[in-house]
Amino acid sequence: MIYLNHRDNNCEELRVRFADHTGELTARLPANILQNTLGYTTQQLKAMSSEERAAVRWRLLLEQCCAKLAATPHRLIVLSLRKANPADPIPLY
Questions:
Q1: In angstroms, rounded to a whole number, what is the distance separating the alpha carbons of residues 36 and 19?
Q2: Please, which domain of life does this record's source organism belong to (predicted)?
Q3: SS3 2
Q4: Cα Rg of the chain (Å, integer)
């Protein structure tokens, strides 16, 4: 589930979880990255019904994505998020 967290009037974030076969990470997704990725503002998402928000989530859910993260001692922040394309390198584990 994705939650809207209100820090102040200018900065909103979503808590997101990334998972693959090696494990999972929880990170904060800033509103501007959310808008670039999904094409909706946080105000538009808040105005949607839960079914409409679920449909938006399913557009990225279970897709291979390319995410760039920044780590601080207390949290991970998403710097960019998009669907992966064939030209993206596949990490070898």
A1: 21
A2: Eukaryota
A3: coil
A4: 14
Nearest Cα neighbor of 33 from 5, 12, 54 is 12
Q: Quote the CA–CA distance of 73 and 89 in Å, as a whole number.
A: 28
Mean of per-residue pLDDT scores for the chain: 80
- Please give the domain boundaries of the chain with CATH numbers for all domains: 3-82 (2.40.50.140)
Tell me if 79 sits within 8 A of 68, measured CB to CB. Answer: yes
29-39 per-position pLDDT tens digit: 898 998 888 88
Going by C-alpha positions, the residue among 8, 78, 2 that lies closest to residue 45 is: 2
> Could you give the 3-state DSSP secondary structure of residue 69?
strand
